[in-house]
Amino acid sequence: MIPWEEIDRAEVPGHEGEVTLLKRGAEFSIRIAGTELMNSRRHGSEDALAELTCSRIKRKSGLRILIGGLGMGYTLAAALEQTEPDALITVSELIPAVVGWNRKYLGHLAGMPLDDPRVSVEQEDVAKIIRAGKSAWDAILLDVDNGPEGLTRKANDCLYGRSGLKASFSALRSGGMLSVWSCGEDEIFTRHLKQCGFQTEIVTVRARKSGKGSRHTIWLAGKPG
Ligand SMILES: C[S@@+](CC[C@H](N)C(=O)[O-])C[C@H]1O[C@@H](n2cnc3c(N)ncnc32)[C@H](O)[C@@H]1O
What we know:
The protein has helices at residues 44-56, 74-82, 96-106, 126-132, 162-171, 187-195; strands spanning 5-11, 18-24, 27-32, 35-39, 64-68, 88-92, 119-122, 137-142, 172-182, 199-206, 215-222.
């Protein structure tokens, strides 16, 4: 078995620990405090986050999509594949080093999505971008933790409580969709989505494209309209 080799490490803004990039042969892993946030061999559910969302949004042209965060770029690449040439996709990434890793080491994994002219990168907390926009987005795709609870940093909890969900509701256009990736189910989060006015669908997706691997949960929360 080839051993993991550390490529780089960086601080999570807010002094909330460190994120590391590791490599083993052709496989990459991003970890926070020893817990894996993303692995290059398993991205079926990260792709599905974008595919399921784009297939449900009625509007097809002039889409404005917000993705948090970048990770290895798989969700971004899937969103690019699903959208028209006039779509604009903003990808928010909290940790500047992750953007640098995509440009230097990881870009080839998902087909260099950061090079697509429809993409702009904001090295910023996605919660801040959500709060700044009213009726700004057709879709907000969140895969910043391993579920609706702060993992990358505790402050991410604010995205999943009622006030964070109300901010997302207000940041969406009518008919828009908030989609959230998770490694498991969470009934309280589902209840909060409904209480905030979302029409919520829960889909179970396998970790690997082949249909194998762990079962992940994706909430597809539509803003009526
Ligand atoms: C699980 S990975 C995303 C994987 C991504 N979906 C993909 O396809 O590769 C989580 C990413 O979200 C970023 N992140 C965590 N909290 C964030 C926040 N509040 N705002 C923006 N990005 C954040 C992390 O640094 C990490 O790059």
